Amino acid sequence: LLRRERYNPQIELGARVYPSAEIKDETGNFDLLTYDVDLEFAAPIYPDTYVTFGAYYGARRYMTSDAFQLGDESYYHTGLHFGFGHFLDEYTLVEVRTSPGLWSDLDGTIHSKDFDYPSEVTITSRVGDSFFWKIGAQYSQLFEEAPWLPVIGVHWEMSEGFRLDVDLPRSVELSLWPTASTGFLLGVDVQGGQYHVRNSLAQGDQRTDSQVQELVAYVGAMHRMNDHLSMFGRVGLVLSGNYDMGDGTPGNTVEGDLGQTIFAQFGVGIDF
Length: 272
What we know:
Helices cover 0% and strands 69% of the residues. By secondary structure, the protein is mostly beta strands. It starts with 10 loop residues before the first strand and ends with a strand. It has no helices and 18 strands. It has a 14-stranded antiparallel beta barrel with strand order 1-2-3-4-5-8-9-10-11-12-13-14-15-18. The protein is globular.
């Protein structure tokens, strides 16, 4: 079952930039910079069972134009990963994962609404030498109207070095690996979440939730320089997205579909 997914480093550091992004039917635009650090490790505790643990930290920095309804803002998500996996037999794996943490602008005192608990339960089964399917359920605020969604996955090495990895509702990717250390990527994925924000004490410390989401298509490459260090990059286009942003002040909001814009991403991976 180690072949069910393409290479994924234990520690991943990355940043994306979206220049001159717009929300349809809203004036002005913004430059968006996102950066993330994600750590996840696995350790066996019994012959057929293992635990996973780690941590994550990320931020979204919105740098807005003068015509945009909202001013500059930063959103943060940070927390821990916990989980376990158990092999029902040599072909079937059950996994449970939860990532409790803060999803907020972190202005002022932390409240219970700043916390969220993205979680997932899946069953992966090997039905051929290089074909795996996955089913399960997830909870997250990636989709505003549907926090609970089914998980459907297909992981298929169609020929040596050519893979299809489907993880609905989050991503679809084709990858070509001419060598074991270098891959070329073509895919679609969804980024975003819901963040609890508030205005200043002088304005009454009022609160609201901001929902942000980007659906992007990309091409990219990944290269493992050695057993411990890798690099990856992607460029692509925002196809769509749903934004419902506010700063806590009643009526001071922007809402609508995200307009098409380019993006670029670069990152490094570390393994021990």
